Every structure is written in C-alpha cells, then in structure tokens.
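User: Once you have settled down, look closely at the record that follows, taking as long as you need, and be ready to discuss the fold:
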Amino acid sequence: MALAVFEVLNKVRNLKTKADKISFLKENESWALKDIIRGTMDSTIKWTLPEGEPPYTPAEAHNHPANLMRENTKFTYFAKGGKGDRLPSVKRERIFLEILEGVHPEDAKVVINMINKEPIKGVTRPIVEEAFPGLLQD
C-alpha cells in the first residue's frame, strides 16, 4: 500500500544523506507528492487562495473520507491560470475546504503549507531536481 504524502515527507525529513532522500522520493513517487512539492517550491505557481490558516474542521485521522492521492487533481482550481480563474472565490474556497476536511489531517497541513509556500523540511531544490528532473519550472 502506498504511503500518504505526509508519511513520505516525514520519512524524507528524517533521512540523513542526500542520496537516501532522493532514492526514497523516487521509490514513493506519486502525482500527489509531486504536486505538493511543485506547488510549494515552484515560484511560477501562484495560488488564488488567501494565505494563512483557513477555518476548517480536520477529519479524524483514522476515518477520513478522501485521499490526497485523488484530491490533488483539484489543485488546478487554486492556481492562477488554472480552471479556478473562472470560479467565484467562494466556490474555489469551498472546494479547498472540502479537500482539507476530507483528507488525513496531516495531509491537510501539507496542503496548507503548500498554499502558503512554506518550505518542506528536509527537501531541498537539488534533491527534488535529482529525484524528479524537470518538475520545477523556475
């Protein structure tokens, strides 16, 4: 069974060497993981959501109805130049809150950090460029 995005990032954070981090990222590659990394690190991606901590009720860790491995496809609604440009901000923010309230609470934190462009601890640009060449555009 595939690890959740937050689990991959937590394990990478605890690995000591660059080679181990690159190897682990490659072994656990998923679109959701790459979307989170790119959304966080790529300065060409601008978010249309307000920065900060949104008001939401996290799902229970043992009983969350959604999975970030599927919900990541909705990130296009939140990026400038994406599908969300045509949506009213209320609708866009509702979709965002639905994701946060549906996924594992730790994955919700990862998504919030992505929107706020907070660096991922233990994951540097050189590591990402070697693990996923061409992922970052800037």
Remarks:
- The chain has one domain: 5-131.
- The two ends are 33 Å apart (CA to CA).
- Residues 5-131 form one domain.
- Residues 50 and 115 are 8 Å apart (CA to CA).
